[in-house]
# Entry
Amino acid sequence: MRFTNLTRTAGIGSNCYRLDLENDSVILDCGMHPEHVGRDSTPLLENLGNNDIRSTILTHAHQDHVGCLPLLQSQHPVMPVLMTAGTARIADVMLHNSVNVMMRQQEQLSLSEPPLFGHRGVEQAARRWRTCPLERPLTLDGDRASHESQDPTVTFYDAGHILGSAGVMIRAEGKKFFYTGDVNFQDQTIQTGARFPEEPVDVLVMETTRGDAVLPDDFTRQKEEERFSTAVAAALNKGASVTIPVFALGKTQEVMALVWRMQQEKIIPATPIYVGGLSSKITAIYDSMASMVPRKLPQLHLMDAVAPYIAGSQEIQSLNPRKRAIYALSSGMMSEHTLSNIFVRKVLPDPAQYLFFVGYADPNSPAGAVRRAEQGSSIQLGEQGDTVPFNCHREEFIFSAHSRREDILNYAIKVRPKTILLVHGDQAAIEWFTRKLYEALPGTTVLSPPPGIPIEL
Ligand SMILES: [Zn+2]
Ligand SMILES: [Zn+2]
# Structure
């Protein structure tokens, strides 16, 4: 077995990994860096050359795991791509949206290179997707494995991160290789915690997103939900609006479910909630699959129960944040030209407004800049250098879709891998895990695989 990290830069970005087995090579995830454009946003696909790739396996449909899949598939047109049914439904929407974003960027940034792929490329790619059930060994083509000892096989396990998310076990050459993808072991408002296998494995590839996130000792999700409810209620009762920059996939649906519950429990008054077009499409997929996937509140159909207003980039310009409402707008990082970036320009300067953060943001993104900013300072929200004064209320809440670090550490200790490969994390996060894992598992080799360098397992 040989593992190669194909993520172009260290950290969280264009996540993509290659696993070479005795006779087959597989690719795990094929993401796009959300803060870069063109070739810089892609994994090291040029390293694949003309090599035959047997299949690609996707853990979930977030952009940093799926974004460059059509590019990879255009280089390997007959290769099957294995994923859960939820991931397939969402990936289709995410990738078509990504084409629109790339076309807009090309115009706005006057890029000389065309978009990495178009709508037709996504349609062609989707024909090779194979939807896979959870907890059932499959061949690398996605067919049901014919007998127990078949080799190699791939098995998907619910990862509790977003709809469709999975960790992947590959059994080959008498070894067990497990890749967590993005994982959450705790329940969220909709998503139930991961159900991962607990048998010993040889190799564990694990995400480390929250390795440097220290939680208060008395932290519980329930207390955090109460703190959030109180803060939202206080703002709305003053007649103000609350703006929450969120990822269109996952966090939007979690926030909508929380708002629904607060309204049911009469903690907050009936308040209009605004979301973007992409968010509403993904929410409709959550609704249509509610009874088919592991989740809480399977009867809750958010598009009916919460009935959000759907805003495009034109409407969002005309909305007045001084009218009481909740704005759950993507992107979560407040990337330039997105709804949250446009709308927050009206929110930031106004001391009567409330801006709440509920998830991860790249420190280098506009959301990262706002989270660090001092009251009264000016913040740059785009490349053009225009700045916006920061006077509004700002509060942060911890509703991460990623596991707390102690939970992932405990999982690693439980499955006692011979080798652990740390991925999907900043330097400080990886350092914390390296230190803790060496203490807890002294016989285990712990590596942070540098981009492009093969590691023999
Ligand atoms: Zn993710
Ligand atoms: Zn990710």
Remarks:
- The pocket of zinc ion (ligand 1) is lined by residues 60, 62, 161, 182 (CB under 6 Å).
- The longest strand covers residues 166-172.
